[in-house]
Fold:
Amino acid sequence: MFERLIRGWSGEQVVVRFDEVSSAWMLIGVHSTVLGPAMGGTRLKAYRSPDEALTDVLRLSQAMTMKQAAAGLDLGGGKAVLAVPEVPAPGSQARRELLLRYGDLVASMGGTYLTAADMNIGEADLDIVGERTMHVLGRSVACGGSGSSAGATALGVFHGIRASIRHAFSDGDLADRRVLVQGVGAVGARLATLLRDAGARLVLADLDDERAAQVARGLGATSIAAHHVLDAECDVFSPCATGGVLSAESIPLLRCRVVAGAANNQLATRWDAERLRDRGILFAPDFVINAGGVIHLAGYERLGWDDAQMTARLAGIGQALAEIFERADRQGVTPAAEADRLAQDRLAAAS
Ligand code: NAI
Structure:
């Protein structure tokens, strides 16, 4: 299976290390360095098998290439997975030692891969990785980093939702639009606050029902059970939890006009973009709308931007999406296809 997965992948290299002490597989996918060093987060997760972990790292690193290219950053696409038998508790010695050994692996790549946060990896973990390598973005401010990128991701998605509403509805106003946010974690909860402040009618859901109810109470919103998300009526469905939510099974159930959210790899297959269009649903390509996180890390830690430059670049996500929607309409293609073309053109020009 390993061989078949890697042969069928378009990336440059995969670094594989089996960590004997923890029985973890450390996998780093360097999909492309055409535009610059491969950058992307590290996911800490218990997978059913190393094959499943490899599938994730190959897919996610490829999506990072598209995200960096579409965002106009001089960075390539990479991603890492620490596939552990069990996720070690935050603050534990076992977690610290795993992260130090992982830091050594990243260091050994000499800057080909720059790591950052992803599922189950936060600032405190990156501070530990940073004890062994300088090739890490998103450490705490106290340790010289720019901190969590979740706020920037949420703001970029917020601008993207506004642009999507302007394109999909004749009045183009967010006020009183019903927006359903799936997943109120680091990004979803911040996004919900921005939407509430802009006058949207919010519906929130999370696998953790209590968390959804708590965030909803704080914002004067309503919450629904996580399993009702797909067939709940709304203007905008905003997936901010996991990938693969838009599929041949789920798309026929949707009762919304727009899908625009932070989750990576929302389309289960590339045909799902066509399925959405056939149902009259406008889809904001995920790697364009959720680029706020990489823009935050690259802007603050590599390009020396100030807050005003950052604010302007995050607002630019809305403008970029508006252009993608218009060009897609003119050319009779889906926004997802148009976003792919944009990224591929930039990669082709650079190579
Ligand atoms: P998080 O882990 O803080 O929050 C995710 C939330 O979704 C959790 O509250 C979890 O309980 C909930 N959830 C998981 N599965 C669910 C389901 N099936 N239904 C409802 N809720 C569910 O993650 P974070 O940082 O908020 O990221 C959210 C998504 O955005 C992820 O897909 C992530 O890959 C993506 N993303 C995050 C970026 C960032 O800067 N944090 C940047 C770009 C993408």
